[in-house]
Amino acid sequence: MQHFLENKVIPVLMKIGNNVILVAIRNGIAFTLPFIIAGSLFLIVANLPIPGWHEFLGSYANKLSVPVQATFGAIGLIAAIGISYNLAKQYNLDGLSCCCITVSVFILAQLDSQYKINVDNFGAAGLFSAIILSIFTVYTVRFFITHKIYIRMPEGVPPAVLQSFISLVPAVVCLALVWFVRVILDFDINGFFTLILSPLVHGLDTLPGMLILVALISLLWSCGIHGTNVLSGITSPIFLKFIAENTQAYLSGQPVPHITAEGFYNFFICAGGSGATMGLVLAMLLSKSRYYKSIGRVSFGPSIFCINEPVIFGVPMVLNPIMMFPLIVAPLVICTCSYLLMDFGIIGRPVFQIPWTMPPILNAYFATGGNIPAAIWSGCMIVISTIIYYPFFRIMEVKQLAIEAQEAELTAEVVH
C-alpha cells in the first residue's frame, strides 16, 4: 500500500498541486480572505447573539452591514485581480498591466441583455468566470510578449509609458474577443462557466463528495504532503462561493443553503488541524512516556490554533502505518456527524468567514452566527477524536515505554 501511494498516487497529486494555474488560483483566492473576514467582522458586530442587541443598535444595525457589499459583493472581481497578478508573476509578466486588462475583460463579460453591467456578478456569482478570464488574459498577454507582437517605442521613453504601449495590443485583442463572444454572439460567459463547473460544485456540496475530499487530504498528510494546500486550488473557489451565498441568505432571513461552505472543513472536521489531531494531543499529554508527553506539550499550543505540523512530524504520523488509519478515519467520522447534524437542523451552518486559526468551540460559535449547539458539538468533536486516536496511540506508547525502560537500565548499568 505504501509503495503504491509513493510511486503511483503521490506523484500525480504533487503534479496537480504544483500546477502553475492551480497555484495562481490558490494564491489569488487568498487575496479575497482579508476582505471577506473584514466584512464578516461587521456582520458579527451587527448580528451579535445578545438579547436586545438589535434594539440597542437601532438604525445602525443595517448600516453596519453595508461594508458587506464592498467585500462579499466583490469577491469575484478581487479574485480576478489576485489570480491574474499571481499568474503574471510566475511568467515574469507585468502584474499591474495584466490585472488592469483582466478587470476590463471581467467587467465586459458581466453585461446583461441590455448591455448594462450586472454588478451582482461581481460577487460569488462571477467567481468561476473570474478564474477562467484571468487565465485567458494572462496567457494571451504572454503569447504576444513571447512572440514580440507589440508596439515598440524609441529609447528614452519612460518605463511606464513603454509598458502601456506594450500592453496595448494584447489588451485590444482580449477585449475584442470577449466583446465578440458576449455582445455579437450574445453568449452568457458567466452562465456557461457556472454550468460547466456545476457537477464539481454539486459534488462538494454533498456528504459523499466531502468524504472523498477529506480522505484524500488525510491520505496526503499521512505521506508528509500538505493535503489542504495541494487541493485548495480546486476546492477554495467553490467553498468561497458557498460561504458568500450563505452570508447573503443569513442577512436576508432566508434558509442557509450550503453545509460545506468555507469553514466547514476547518471548524467542523479538523479539531486541532487536519486529521482532527486534537484528541491525539490530549492523549499524549496524559502519556506515561517522556517522549510523547514532551511532544504533547509542544503540540498543544499550536493545536489550539489548528496548527498540527508538530503532531504530524513529531509523533510522527508521516509514513506511520499504525497512525494512518485514525488519521483518515477520525476526520471521516466527524465529517459525517457534522454534516448530518447540520442537515437535520440540530446545529447551525457556517454563515461567517472567520480566521481559520480561531480556537475550537469559539470558531464554531462565531462561524455559525452564535449558534450554541454548534459550539457544544465542537467540544464533542474533540472527545470523539480522542476516542478514535487513543487505541492506536496506546500501541505506540507501549513500544515507546519499553524503549525508555531499556534506556533507563543501560544508563543505570553505566552509572554503577
Automatic annotation (TrEMBL):
InterPro entries: PTS_EIIC, PTS_EIIC_3, PTS_IIC_cello, PTS_Sugar-EIIC/EIIB. It is a multi-pass membrane protein. The phosphoenolpyruvate-dependent sugar phosphotransferase system (PTS), a major carbohydrate active -transport system, catalyzes the phosphorylation of incoming sugar substrates concomitant with their translocation across the cell membrane. The chain crosses the membrane at residues 20-46, 66-88, 95-111, 123-145, 157-180, 200-221, 264-287, 327-352, 372-392. Residues 5-392 form the PTS EIIC type-3 domain. Pfam families: PTS_EIIC. The keyword Magnesium does not apply. NCBIfam families: lacE. Keywords: Cell membrane, Membrane, Sugar transport, Transmembrane, Transmembrane helix, Transport. PROSITE patterns: PTS_EIIC_TYPE_3. This is Permease IIC component. It is found in: Cell membrane.
